[in-house]
Amino acid sequence: MPRVLIFVFDGLQPELVTPDLMPRLHTFAASGVRLQRHQPVFPSVTRVNASSIVTGCFPGTHGLPGNLSLIPAYHPTTPMNAMRPEFLELRERDGRLLLVPTLAEVLAGHGLDYVAAGIGSTGQSFVHHPNADHPNGNTPTLGASIHPEYTLPGDLHHQLTARFGPWPPPALPNVARIDRLVDVVTRYVLADRDPAVALLWCSEPDGSQHASPLNSGLVRAAAGAADAAFGRLLDWLEESGTASTTDVIVTCDHGHSTVDALVPLPELLAAAGFAPPGDPGGVVAAGNGGAALLYVPDGDRAVADRLAAWLMTQWWAGPLLASPRLGPIEGTLSTALLGLDGERGPDFALSFAWDDRPNDHGQRGYVYASGGKPGHGQHGSMSPAELRTFTVARGPAFRANATVSTPTGHPDLAPTVLRILGLDPPPHMDGRVIEEALVGGAPTPEPPAPLEEHVATRRLEGGDYRQRLLLAPAGRGAYVLEASAEHE
Questions:
Q1: Model confidence at 200, in pLDDT bands (50, 70, 90)?
Q2: What is the CATH number of domain 259-356?
Q3: At residue 168, does pLDDT exceed 50?
Q4: Which of these, 211, 170, 256, 206, lies nearest to 373 by C-alpha position?
């Protein structure tokens, strides 16, 4: 039986993958197949993209549109932070966390094991198998998610602590926890359970990029520590004799930009005369780093149109998308284009403005953001610095010494993993099998999907607003190749 191992370097900037700084990943990539245009979904934040990786779906389908989003089943006017305590509460109230099965649940239906181990946020870890400890979930013997603070199912945490000791405290760089993560994966997950799919989620260099300037000494040290851990994993595969039967996929969930300035959106909305959440005509804003999701809970069409017009006059605002349920809103594009429309989709999705300036360490890309620290790393927007990944695969199922230039993205990973395991992707998955990366697969999709350009304008007092998106359609969504917004 083939085995698939997925290693996620959270927030990895491709420029960090050099022979000097990340030699193990650089060497690995040179002999594998590189997905040159592999992208995250928008918003380019972690828990949204983790959900897309494990469901094969765009956010509108899997039901988690943001790290912070308004989900009425959780609360009608207060955005939910996508972390473990809130997830437990949502699952209790709604009976569902994600709206579609995860890869763990799909594999369990075929009697196959999926184990994820990660040291990022509790929310990122939870989405891998959100029903493992739920009465309606799969049997605990199939599928698990391991995190320093908890496991799914819950009794596994005590077993691992007894065997490996307490998890080291978090740090920057997060070296001790990264080392423990590799210990747990090699000595327990791979050696004892030998699942069909194992996933490691490394918190670096993302944690250090949020805490310091991009490409700083701290970030470079974090990237080096993560690379060393990846090397230990590859060494274990060789020493255990399983390298030749293991397909290894390496990716990251998003890129990073440097925070230019913070945008206090709730305060600005109040100053502009919009009612607070819960009041008639109230507006709810959920900041997602370089993006924001906005809601008009009572569906007031006049308020929605005024909100769109106001956003289009703000110098910090970039592309703006609106839900089809609002009806036509002049100057906006549809959230359905990016797979954001759905049962839990936002009324508006805004990318903050960005530019291509370098920071003091030479890393290009600045963005306005709802949170973070000016001068430090952040993500969430449609900036090309954030809508990119470093994604490469190597193993018996993948082509060697090859590159794939067709657009791909995180919803395509789960269908591809299932194909490697000899299973057909279920119909709920939005993504496709990346055939052009596989041995024997067609070199390009037949026929290749044409790119789509979408433009929207609106004449406003004081100047015109114009936005443009160049998209690569993919199932029930699309990947953003270029995005711009102009205020004239």
A1: very high
A2: 3.30.1360
A3: yes
A4: 211
Contact call for residues 71 and 110 (beta carbons, < 8 A): no
Alpha-carbon distance 25 to 16, whole Å?
A: 10
Tokens representing 295?
């809601």
| 135-150: pLDDT as tens digits | 554 444 589 999 999 9
Sheet hosting strand 477-487, strand order edge to edge: 452-460, 463-474, 477-487
Say yes or no to pLDDT of 474 above 80.
Answer: yes
Which tokens belong to 480? Answer: 């953003």
Beta-strand relationship, 291-295 and 284-288: antiparallel
Are the C-beta atoms of residues 39 and 402 closer than 8 Å to each other? no
Question: HSE (CB half, 13 Å, CA atoms) of 4?
Answer: 25
Contact 414, 423 (CB under 8 A): no
Stretch(es) of the chain classified as CATH 3.40.720.10: 3-255+387-437
Q: Residues spanned by CATH 3.30.1360 within the chain? A: 259-356
Indicate the SS3 state at residue 81.
strand
Cis, bond preceding 396 (omega within 30 deg of 0): no
- Residue 303 CA to residue 298 CA, distance in Å, equals 10
Q: How many CA atoms lie within 13 A of 443 on its CB side?
A: 2
Q: What pLDDT, on a 0 to 100 scale, did the predictor assign at position 377?
A: 98
**206 pLDDT tier (thresholds 50, 70, 90):** very high
pTM for this entry = 0.97
What stretches of 116-264 show up as alpha helix (H) in DSSP? 122-126, 155-164, 175-184, 206-211, 217-239
What fold characterizes domain 3-255+387-437?
A: Alkaline Phosphatase, subunit A (3.40.720)
How is the beta sheet containing 364-369 ordered, strand by strand?
Answer: 354-358, 364-369, 257-262, 377-378
What is the β-pairing status of strands 392-394 and 33-35? antiparallel
